[in-house]
Amino acid sequence: MKHKYSFGNDGRFVANFNIDLINAFNNNSVLTLNTTKYRVTNTIATTDIDPSFNSAVSTPTAILNKVLNGGIATQIQQLQNGGLPSLTGRPNPVLSTYGLPSAYQAPRLVRFGFGLTF
Fold first, then answer.
1. What b-and-e string marks burial along 1-20, b requiring 16 or more CB atoms within 10 Å of the CB?
2. Which helix (H) or strand (E) element contains residue 37?
3. What are φ and ψ of residue 85, in 5° steps?
4. Residue 48 within any structural domain of the chain
5. Are 44 and 84 in contact (CB under 8 A)?
6. What global pTM score does this model have?
């Protein structure tokens, strides 16, 4: 909110007053959630889907078709239980912070301003 007040004989002096009120009701809403599900890896490599895939000599068309047609249920299960070849036998537990809030709305901010133009 702004307000100007002119004064002087010819109105050439101006006093400016303003107030900015951000998050007036001090709402503490969640803005983002932690979407990283697993501790070790959150990806499935092309070689996990097709062990004979070589990116230097082939295109991932067959792999993409498999992904888009829902043909990677086995790999998703392996991602969850640590059985993917790219994990090399390491467990892949779910993060304890998965799905929890990671950012909140900023607290209430009130800013007053004053200016004088002459």
1. eeeeeeeeeeeeeeeeeeee
2. none
3. -60, -35
4. yes
5. yes
6. 0.56
Judge whether 100 lies within some domain. no
Domain that holds residue 50: 42-90
Asked if residue 98 belongs to a domain, the reply is no
pLDDT in tens, the chain (118 residues): 899 999 988 888 999 999 999 999 999 999 999 999 888 888 888 888 888 888 888 888 989 999 999 889 988 888 888 788 888 878 888 899 999 999 999 999 999 999 998 8
CA distance 6 to 91: 72
Alpha helices in 2-102 (DSSP H): 46-49, 61-68, 73-81
Here the tokens at position 101 are: 């809030």
> Which candidate, 104, 102, 81, 84, places its Cα nearest to that of 35?
102
Structural contact between residues 95 and 33, judged by C-beta atoms closer than 8 angstroms: no
